[in-house]
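User: Structure please.
Assistant: Input sequence and predicted structure:
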Amino acid sequence: MAVTHKLITELLQKGIPQQQWKLYSALFEETAAGFISASPDKLRSLPAGDPSITLLLVKYLLKSVNTDIDSIQHIRSLATDFNKRVIKAATEEQVNEYILALAADLGASPADLRKDRKALGRWLEKDTVIERCNRRVGIREYRIVFYLTCLAFVARQALKANYSDHDIRKVWEQLEMEKMLETILAYVGDDRLRVAIFRCLADTLRALPATVRAKAVKDSTLNYIYRSALEIRQHVWIQVEALRLLGVLSEEALEKALHIRLNAEQGPDDIFVRTKAVQLIGQHMERNERLLELLPQIQNDPSPYVRQAAPPVLGKVLEFLPSGEKRSAAFGLLEHLVHNDEQPEVRAASLLILPDMMLRNDLGSPMTELLCQVFRNERNSFVLRTALKTVRDVLINIHPLNRSRAETFFNEILPCLEKVHHSCDDLAIRRWTAQTINFGEVLLDTDMHALYRKIDKKIDTMKLGERENVPKAWFAQLDDLRIGRVLAQVAEAKGSLTLDKGRLHTRITKGDRFDFRLWRFIYEIFRPSPDKRQAHNHTIGRVFSGNLHAPTPIMAELTQTKVPGEPLLQSAEFGWRPYLPLVDQLFPLLSVLYTKQALHIYTAEGKTSITPPAGWLQRIRARLRLTFRFTHYSQLRNWQEK
């Protein structure tokens, strides 16, 4: 297959995040077309997978960068000469001629120049053509950053071909990337160009063998990069990328730079540089264990943002070092961050590494105890909620690999969860804790988990308000309480569910269904208003069927609606109290002709049962009272905590 426009575009796109493909679509097209037209004879004879294509594309991108830099220098030279002439101009006519001359030099067509001549004295002035120069410079700088971003991936592909160390050194020298680095470092303009070249060079050098990489740049270039990593007056992202590049070029230089940056007085933007320094410790500690001596300094860093970068590094240390003082020190630092750090954000971030740590047999018990201590001693709601998320993540990670370990972990953590559920001052945390307990029990019970997977898969194929029959055999091994708990777990993420277990069928409903409701008709009759929604039926309300309801805890109105009876978020619980029935849920119980079974509402908190009156006259009276005083009872349900 010959080299095509599509093939080159796809190669360029691999160096750019997919979310940005649309942003750079025009540049992809332009670059691919330019590359193919620049070397048509060479490309015609090469098959699609030939490594020479990437080498040719690297050289084309480098040439494009140099061309745009030369063009920028030319535009700036034109602007400088223009300013000098304008200062010396004696008349307005001379200034106008200089304006038109600069416009022509910038590429204006004869038609554009005629329009510019007419615009003189109205809106076209010297500042206007200078702005045209700045815009052209900006477009070229934007294009250079794009070229450098693509170049990082394409150059890596070119260097990954099966070359010997001697040959790959020759290929690297042919690319002349250090020459381009020197050109851009000498460039005076947008700092993003230097950030991009540092990033490009760091990504490219990783494809070189260590023996070649050590001599890939001159000592003078390495010294410049080292100074850029330490100079706090540099653009902050230049410092960050210079540190990253040092890690590729020289472990010794990186170690010195990290010591200085983590011990130096902090500048206003230094938190980003110090955070990168912490991350580099984790990336390079296997090659240089001396970097671990910097970890105690992180504990005392004044910025919570920097301290939040420490837990992933500590996790790598615990995995990398099987034993020893450094491993014990790392675990002690993790304990300090989890329990004693003054900022809840840092304590919460420290918990997020536990799920991965729990996969190791030797870390399971200490990490479980660490998590138990959080539930025993922590009072901050954000940290507790993060700990609950951590419990779920641990179960999700371990359960597919080792079910018995997952059960052991959950049994050890369950008493702590139950204590939080019963005694935590924050009602929202108690609700979330109940959901976590229910999640664990459904996951670890074989029959409940099997039913969960079946219902979850079935619900994904249904639309809101849709009802479908399901096999009775699904529920044969479970009683109603366990079925309800499974439904509550599915409803937590997929929406409210209703199960109707009849003699002839078992039917499940996803979401709420709506139909004519007498209370709504009466409500609208007595409350006319011109601001009601148009083309919308104002006489409908929720209609419920079945006697097993599992309302979702995540769908509620944030503010009180004009129409009563909607689930309303209660800030104290961060939910709408789904364990209490909506008034609409009571109407199916109040049938006139026959007595309905009790209604059971299942949530993570347990089961709520509502039994209708036995006598038909009592049911009629209750139905009429709910119909005509619907608003009153809806408001009673939404009381506010004091």
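The mean pLDDT is 88.
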